[in-house]
Specification:
Layout lengths: L2 H17 L8 H32 L13 H47 L2 H5 L3 H43 L2 H48 L1 H6 L3 H53 L5 H42 L21 E8 L8 E8 L4 E5 L6 H8 L7 E6 L2 E2 L5 H7 E4 L10 H6 L7 H10 L3 H6 L17 H15 L3 E5 L7 H14 L4 E5 L11 E6 L2 E6 L1 H7 L2 H16 L5
Parallel strand pairs: 3-8, 3-9, 6-7, 7-8
Antiparallel strand pairs: 1-2, 1-4, 4-5, 9-10
Helix pairs in contact: 1-9, 2-3, 2-5, 2-9, 3-5, 3-9, 5-6, 5-9, 6-8, 6-9, 8-9, 13-15, 17-18
The structure holds adenosine-5'-diphosphate and magnesium ion (MG).
Adenosine-5'-diphosphate binds next to helix 10.
């Protein structure tokens, strides 16, 4: 068995549990009744050819071979019609009853994948392609539905029907008949599987190119502004078109395979029908069989061939679905690089002291980012981190949130190592205003309220006032219902920062982390916000990463980071007296400010 087949079987097996949903007992009767409908539909279906034969024979004056009923031609015809209708009705009923079960499975799997994606670590999400992933989930979950429905209600029943009909034909006619019928079907199935197998690689290529084209399109549209800045529309079009061309090529090959398959299938059935009908025709001439028998074999073979025609399609789709699902399950098999310790308790803060103890960290092994970082922020105090861009300031913030684990050293909150508690309880205690704020594509009110989904409008307005954005929002025609656009792009950098501050205030965390949270604001607004923040963070442990030193002169302690190392540490006053790195930065910034005046962005 190839790898794909093995994982395919595993996928089917893992789906089986959804056929009998244990946790949703109310769905179980639906499974039973849809199976019942299936049996009834099949049973009625097998009588249809006999009723047709009986009708024809009674019309042509032959004796009717249904010993238990003596019927007139008209009632036979009526029964024939009724049987056909009944078979369809029960077929539809079966699908209608089962859809709940299949949809339940689809929903559960989609939800599992989605929450798994949220559990994966930041490093996975920084290197993913959102468009590609959403398509994988989309196709994968549709595949679940398909496989469940068709494996249960198509493949199995059709195989049973084949055996049943072969038996009936053997009983009613003779061995040669059943051999031809079975042989035709067998060759049909074998050829279908063979050609389908061969076609799979085109389908895979199609999927791959489609995903790629989609990722490219989405990424390109997300970067709309960048594309315009560089006038690179043509470049983007070419890139997208190259993907589309490969998709086009793959789908042409795929269609060629499909047409070939359909032709081969038609030829096999045609030849089989011809052979078996010639035999019957000879039997009718020699009065061994009736005209009804001639129609009977024809109807049987056609009735078998119809779902089989479907079987080819179903097999193809199931294999495709397995490919799609495999992709999705692959995602589920990516393990988070940061995970909760087994039976980790919730974080329960006795105090909010933050301690970094000999922390060493690198994103990639080749390049150390933080080197032996040590600091302590006592409960209720404010620590400021300053240093050139790229020195590792934001990395410190990410480590506190445990987006990554340091290679060595301990980070603790209130005396507890953050590795020993659950990540979600840890993050519940922390409030972060990140360097680059990205907003949800919803209203301003929604984005502020995100800090605490239970908060009411009054609370939202209170924090908006503290973050100096209430006034701005009131000026908007739709006020708090204003849409912010994808990633919040309809707001200016400063407005986004204020929304981010407001929603963090709403969360009311025990520890604040501000990562250059006011860097995009003009100095007047910045001062106003600083006032509010100082008030709010008076007794709350706060870590401020700052670009402009004027905002942190009051911090209880300042650390200066350079190339991932703490090079200076102390209060503003201490560091000025020291007259080294910090003092130099300070006088440089003061000079700049005098030259350019207050910044207005
Ligand atoms: N996910 C990442 N993978 C690899 N390198 C990263 C990643 N994130 C940041 N870096 C690198 O780590 C260094 C420190 O980044 P950062 O902490 O954001 O600096 P800053 O002091 O400007 O906030 C930078 O050189 C940056 O390129
Ligand atoms: Mg940074």
């Amino acid at each position: 068995m190839s790898n794909l087949e093995r994982s395919g079987w595993q996928t089917i097996k893992s789906l089986a549990k959804y056929l009998w949903p244990k946790d949703r007992k109310e769905l179980q009767p639906f499974v039973v009744f849809s199976l019942l409908s299936l049996v009834i539909a099949k049973a009625v279906n097998v009588t249809v050819p006999f009723l047709l034969k009986a009708s024809i024979d009674s019309l042509s004056g032959s004796k009717i071979e249904l010993p238990f009923i003596v019927l007139l031609p008209a009632s036979l015809v009526i029964s024939y019609g009724a049987a056909r209708i009944l078979a369809s009705i029960f077929g539809e009923l079966r699908d209608f009853l089962f859809i709940r079960v299949a949809q339940n499975a689809q929903r559960k799997i989609a939800l599992e994948t989605f929450s798994h994606l949220h559990n994966l670590s930041l490093d996975f999400h920084l290197s993913r392609q959102t468009g590609g992933i959403s398509r994988v989930i989309d196709r994968g979950t549709k595949g679940v539905n398909f496989v469940l429905t068709f494996a249960t209600f198509n493949i199995l029943p059709t195989l049973i029907e084949i055996i049943l009909v072969t038996g009936i034909v053997y009983y009613h006619f003779n061995f040669t008949f059943s051999l031809i019928m079975f042989g035709t079907i067998f060759i049909y199935i074998a050829l279908t599987l063979f050609v389908t197998e061969w076609r799979m690689k085109f389908r895979k290529a199609m999927n791959k190119e489609e995903t790629e084209a989609n990722s490219k399109a989405i990424d390109s549209l997300l970067n709309y502004e960048t594309v315009k800045y560089f006038s690179n529309e043509q470049h983007e079009k070419d890139r997208y078109d190259r993907s589309l061309q490969r998709y086009e090529q793959a789908s042409i090959q795929s269609q060629f395979g499909l047409s070939l398959l359909n032709t081969v299938q038609a030829a096999v059935i045609g030849l089989g029908l011809m052979a078996i009908m010639m035999l019957t025709a000879a039997g009718v001439e020699s009065h061994q069989y009736t005209v009804g028998d001639f129609v009977l074999v024809n109807t049987f073979l056609i009735q078998l061939y119809l779902p089989l025609n479907f079987l080819g399609f179903v097999y193809r789709e199931i294999k495709n679905s397995l490919v799609d699902m495999e992709k999705m399950f692959e995602l589920q098999n990516v393990f988070p690089s940061v995970s909760d310790a087994a039976n980790a308790p919730e974080m329960n803060l006795l105090n909010t002291e933050v301690v970094f103890q000999n922390v060493n960290f690198s994103y990639q092994p080749e390049r150390a980012i933080l080197k032996n970082v040590n600091f302590k922020v006592p409960s209720g105090k404010t620590l400021a981190i300053v240093g050139p861009s790229g020195s590792g300031k934001s990395t410190i913030a990410r480590l506190i949130f445990r987006f990554y684990d340091p290679q060595s050293g301990i980070i603790s909150l209130g005396g507890v190592s953050i590795k020993d508690v659950t990540q979600s309880s840890l993050r519940l205690k922390l409030g972060m205003v990140p360097q680059d704020t990205v907003l949800f594509n919803d209203t301003i009110g929604y984005n502020i309220g995100y800090g605490n989904p239970k908060a009411g409008q009054a609370d939202i307005e209170r924090v908006a006032k503290l973050a100096q954005i209430h006034h701005f929002i009131e000026l908007l025609p739709l006020k708090y219902n204003t849409q912010v656009g994808e990633r919040g792009l309809k707001l200016s950098g400063g407005e986004k920062q204020r929304v981010a501050i407001a929603r963090t205030l709403l969360k009311n965390p025990s520890i604040f982390v501000f990562d250059e949270a006011t860097s995009a604001l003009d100095s007047h607004t910045e001062k106003e916000i600083q006032k509010s923040l100082k008030e709010i963070s008076k007794n709350v442990t706060t870590i401020v990463i700052a670009h402009r030193l004027s905002t942190i002169v009051d911090a209880d302690e300042i650390i200066v980071l350079k190339n991932g190392e703490i090079v200076e540490q102390g209060t503003h006053h201490d560091l000025i007296l020291r007259d080294q790195v910090y003092a130099e930065l300070w006088s440089k910034q003061k000079l700049e400010q005098e030259e350019t005046g207050p910044r207005h962005l």
